[in-house]
Design goal:
The protein is an alpha+beta fold and 83 residues long. It has a domain of 50 residues: Beta Barrel (OB fold (Dihydrolipoamide Acetyltransferase, E2P)). The longest helix has 11 residues. One of its GO terms (cellular component) is nucleus.
Amino acid sequence: MHTTNTEKRSGEMFINSQHGLRDGFTPKKILAATKQMGETLFLVEYFDTDELDLAPKQEVFDRAPLIVLQFFEKYIPASVNPA
């Protein structure tokens, strides 16, 4: 879902396409991941704004690698071979 609407409505968060990172917001948390036209995008929540952002995986990793690692640790189980 893409929208460029910046008008705030009560109880709603807006998803903007790649505006948060470019506007200098600091990523707070990755909420989800999706793939569009072969590119992995993260749905990112930022500090100091109610807006959500679909941002390319590499851009998020470059700005906040720990956030990306935390997302993968939470949603992708590690393979453990029993000894």
